[in-house]
Design goal:
Blueprint (H helix, E strand, L loop, with lengths): L7 E15 L15 H10 L5 E2 L13 H9 L2 H8 L17 E5 L5 E5 L5 E14 L2 E16 H10 L20 E5 L5 E4 L5 H11 L6 H7 L3 E2 L9 E4 L7 E7 L7 H8 L14 H11 E2 L15 E4 L3 E7 L3 H4 L5 H35 L6 H24 L9 H14 L1 H51 L11 H24 L1 H11 L6 H9 L4
Parallel strand pairs: 9-10, 11-14
Antiparallel strand pairs: 1-6, 1-10, 1-11, 2-3, 3-5, 4-5, 4-7, 5-6, 7-8, 12-13, 13-14
Helix pairs in contact: 7-8, 10-11, 10-12, 10-13, 11-13, 13-14, 13-15, 15-16
Length: 549
């Protein structure tokens, strides 16, 4: 077996998936609050000249030119997943909230054509940008960046290094010479002419530390910040309605495709480092115990088409998935593996990408709900009526949004095709989204129960007050009813005199009612004691005297 430096990756693809939480939009007077309407703001920005423009779907072109690749992608998924990804018949469409429209809104920018990466050893490589998309979702405050890039004839070591270092939103630490430890030395976005549009600032250690000290949140690297514009970081001084914040770990989830002349020469260490997206090793010996690799192979490898002992191109494809990374390895001499339309490369870029996108979309949405619930609870002040009203409104908004998420977006299975179904189950198991969903659902139900209990308590208090007022008012009603007539003959009095009598009686009665309502709790306790035959009359009198005046 050759070293990772000698082994050449004939073709390389990498797709980064970066989920972010969107902050609630500013409230518009006269409109009810709603989640997941950021795409409308983005559409307006696109019309105003933003580099992010709405991406046409496969169904927007001439039906006569619909490709088999799109057809195979479509039929991979179950019908309810198809409606999520593609929408339904045009006759059903009206607006984004209607059943027939896809709730997913995609924007694409085309000004960035290449990525320049400067590695730790000073070597420079250019990677072609294949696609650069932003995915917004109706009814949910989540956005996902998808960046696909490719390269040819790279050493395995260089590919491992690119996978390990590229998808980092900010440096976690710096070396003694103040260079970012696990990041590339430099990243730059290039246009079609090869000119630099924006570049990284990993070396600005002081800037990152100052931002952390000011906002209690990490600063995004400048090239990622530029890429997302006109979206702006929430924890910053930047001005903008579309604000985002980090929702997961600073290493972006990713997919990688690698074709080799002979993938059977890869060692166990090579597979482990590819599958776990680890840095390349300088040692020939495996630095992990055999038990560690056995666990990796059992939990993260899909070897249906990987039979090394056969040494056959048809048994040379290995899939690896640890939740954060989905890696496909195969033979460049296998026509099906390298076919970009209906072969493995086409499946990687479309079906497997969508499987991974859905899984990470689920996780990001659930984390967003968890964060919003925690923030709502943290802002609750039970002594402040305004805080209580805001808490109720936010909780009911989240309850309705979570219900719609469950019915519209939550899929326990996405395909009946064996490979796609099994890979999606692997992703769900690795990301543990089932447990996260159960936790969020339990939190939503607990907060719903709290609101119901609070409403019942308030209703009970109101009933007590009304009961006390009714009992005390019953005395006057009974007396006047027994007499059967008015105590004073005021019918012959002048209108002005009757008006003064009315005012003179209304004021003390109104004050008496207000006093009764104000002291309804103490009066209620007195009435409970009064109705208890076991309590002595002396104690009942003392309880009456305890009513505060």
């Amino acid at each position: 077996m050759g070293s990772s430096t000698d082994i050449v990756v004939k073709h390389y693809r990498q797709i980064l998936i970066w989920p972010l939480q969107l902050m609630p939009l500013p409230e518009v007077r006269g409109r009810s609050r709603a989640m997941g309407r950021h795409w409308e703001v983005m559409s307006a920005m696109s019309a105003a000249g933003s580099p992010w423009q709405p991406r046409p779907t496969e169904f927007d072109g001439d039906p006569a030119e619909f490709k088999e690749r799109h057809y195979r992608e479509f039929v991979t998924f179950l019908p309810y997943v198809q409606r999520f990804l593609y929408g339904e018949g045009r006759s059903e469409a009206g607006d984004a909230a209607n059943y027939g429209h896809s709730p997913m809104h995609v924007f694409r920018r085309k000004d960035i054509q290449q990525v320049l990466m400067v590695f730790k050893d000073g070597k420079t490589h250019h990677f072609k940008v294949i696609h650069l998309d932003l995915y917004f979702f109706y009814d949910l405050d989540v956005v996902i960046l998808a960046l696909e890039l490719g390269g040819d004839n790279l050493s395995l070591r260089r590919v491992q290094d690119a996978m390990f270092r590229f998808g980092r939103t900010f440096p976690a630490q710096w070396d003694e010479n103040e260079t970012a430890t696990s990041c590339l030395r430099k990243v730059a976005w290039l246009d079609a002419a090869g000119d630099v549009i924006a570049s990284s600032d990993y070396e600005d250690r002081a800037g990152y530390l100052q931002h952390m000290g000011q906002f209690c949140a990490p600063k995004m690297a400048s090239h990622w910040e530029y890429l997302l514009s006109p979206l702006v970081m929430h924890h910053s001084n930047a001005v903008g309605d579309l604000r985002y914040r980090q929702i997961e770990y600073h290493r972006m989830p990713m997919l990688a495709y690698l074709s080799f002349e002979n993938p059977f020469v890869l060692s166990d260490e090579d597979f482990y480092r590819l599958g776990t997206v680890s840095r390349p090793s300088d040692m020939d010996a495996l630095p992990f115990s055999s038990k560690v690799f056995a666990a990796f192979e059992a939990n993260c490898c899909y070897d249906r088409f990987w039979i090394p002992e056969n040494n056959s191109p048809m048994a040379s494809t290995r899939l690896m998935c640890n939740g954060q990374a989905f890696v496909m390895v195969g033979m460049a001499g296998n026509p099906f593996f390298v076919d970009p339309y209906t072969g493995s490369l086409g499946q990687f870029r479309h079906q497997y990408f969508l499987l991974t996108l859905i899984a990470h979309f689920h996780k990001a949405s659930l984390l967003m709900f968890s964060d919003r619930l925690a923030v709502a609870l943290a802002k609750l002040n039970v002594q402040d009526e305004i805080s209580i009203r805001n808490f109720k409104r936010e909780t009911r908004l989240l309850q309705a949004a979570f219900l719609r998420f469950t019915q519209r977006y939550w899929f326990r299975e996405v395909s009946n095709q064996a490979i796609s179904s099994q890979l999606f189950l692997m992703l769900k198991r690795q990301l543990d989204t089932e447990t996260l969903y159960a936790d969020v659902r339990e939190s939503v139900q607990a907060m719903s129960q709290y609101l119901e209990n609070e409403d019942l308590r308030r209703q009970a208090d109101t009933v007590v007050r009304l009961t006390v007022v009714t009992i005390l008012g019953l005395v006057g009603t009974t007396i006047t009813g027994f007499l059967g007539m008015n105590l004073f003959a005021l019918a012959e009095e002048s209108g002005w005199n009757r008006l003064w009598y009315f005012i003179g009686v209304s004021i003390p009665i109104t004050l008496l009612i207000l006093f009764t309502v104000a002291k309804s709790k103490s009066l209620s306790e007195f009435l409970d004691v009064l109705s208890d035959d076991r309590v002595l009359w002396l104690s009942k009198i003392k309880q009456f005297l305890h009513i505060k005046t």
